[in-house]
Amino acid sequence: MKQSIIWLWWHMPFNRAVKHRIKDRFFRTFGFLFRNTKPYKNWLAIRNISSAVDFDSLSSYPDNWSVKELDLPSEEYTRKPINIARVVFVIHAFYPEVFGEILEQLSREFSGKETKRPIILVSTTANSVDVVNEMLGKALFQFQVFQFDNRGRDILPFLRILKNIDDDGVMIVKIHTKKSNHRLTGDLWRKELFDSLLTAKNIFRGVTYFNHNPNVGIIGPKGHLVPMSLYFGGNALALQFFCGKFGISVEVLKSLNFVAGSMFFARLSALQPLLDLEIPDEMFEQEAGQNDGTMAHAIERVFSLSCALCNMGLVDTSFPKSLENLGVTKDHPYTW
Questions:
Q1: Radius of gyration, CA atoms only, the chain
Q2: Within 10 Å of residue 261's Cβ, how many Cβ atoms?
Q3: Looking at residue 195, which CATH number applies to its domain?
Q4: Are 295 and 267 contacting, i.e. CB atoms less than 8 angstroms apart?
């Protein structure tokens, strides 16, 4: 029944903004019937974050949400970034068969480019670590494999691996073996992301773009940069929490975009505020096939908050001439 309702809602012939208005009117009228349901609580959190003047009064968070306090304002976060000199792939290989697709594509793209081959840092689980090592052993890349529990999906391993990189002059290419099994179009979404980020041409263009645009912290795949205000999902409460830690206002939050699908190019310095929070493993839920509303889904959006604290914005692989020429997708075809 639940999946049928989601399917019907997803296929209603309205854009994202209209659906928001329909949901708002429905819960305002019939909310008393749904007060104990997750959709109603999510709607209430989104309404709170959208109408709040500040986050001082919105401080009721789970007991296990505890991070390091940042010393703000910090000149470290707003200093001019140094030039990118090398590329490091950080890949979460939960599905070895999809990881094989990634290696095949990278091998094709970097064939004959021995001096320009990127370093590959791979996270995976105990169940897959042997096969991932075997696959990498046959590839022509410098690599290192990290083993993690299946918690926090691609996000928690990503944060932990970045702690092993102490050179700011790198472009991080964040990739994961996305399947999105809850969506019939999951394979198509993954292909679009890979086609934007796993080409030598766009990787080299990304390095050049970063070096000419110090005010850009993340480059997402073309067509997958979406407005925060339309895609809070079940993550509004967590975003309130992190805005408070970063000292980011409601108005700034609502003006931001983020990368749907959580694959992108990034400066390490743009993610430093997020890394400095030292988010503990316990803040990430145990894996249970959740479609939204987990800490991993929230951090997908918090990447943008980290950039904002560094006075950096996001663009996509159309590589626009300025932040004013962004191709933001208001009706993303693959996101609930």
A1: 20
A2: 23
A3: 3.90.550
A4: no
Q: How many domains does the chain have?
A: 1
Hey, what are 86's tokens? 């090398």
pLDDT above 70: percentage of residues in the chain: 90
Q: Span 310-332, mean pLDDT? A: 91
- With beta carbons less than 8 A apart as the criterion, state whether 123 and 161 touch: yes
Examine residue 265 and state whether it is found in any structural domain, yes or no: yes
pLDDT range class, residue 54, cuts 50, 70, 90: low
- Tokens read off for 67: 């991070």
Q: What is the pLDDT of residues 2-51, one digit of tens each?
A: 556 655 666 676 777 887 788 888 888 877 788 888 788 887 888 877 77
Residue 58 confidence class, pLDDT cut points 50, 70, 90: low
Answer whether residue 233 is part of any domain: yes
Do residues 178 and 259 touch, judged by C-beta distance below 8 A? Answer: no
Parent domain of 215? 37-336
Q: What is the 3-state secondary structure (H, E, C) of the chain?
A: CHHHHHHHHHCCCCCHHHHHHHHHHHHHHHHHHCCCCHHHHHHHHHHHHHHCCCCCCCCCCCCCCCCCCCCCCCHHHHCCCCCCCEEEEEEECCCHHHHHHHHHHHHHHCCCCHHHCCEEEEEECCCCHHHHHHHHHHCCCCEEEEECCCECCCHHHHHHHHCCCCCCCEEEEEEECCCCCCCCCHHHHHHHHHHHHCCHHHHHHHHHHHHHCCCEEEEECCCCEEEHHHCCCCCHHHHHHHHHHHCCCHHHHHHCEEECCCCEEEECHHHHHHHHCCCCHHHCCECCCCCCCCHHHHHHHHHHHHHHHCCCEEEECCCCCCHHHCCCCCCCCCCC
Q: Strand 257-259 and strand 225-227: pairing?
A: antiparallel
CB atoms within 10 A of CB 154: 23
Q: Is residue 62 part of a domain?
A: yes
Residue 88 placed within a domain:
yes
Q: What average pLDDT does the structure give for the chain?
A: 88
CB contact at 8 A, 177 and 168 = no
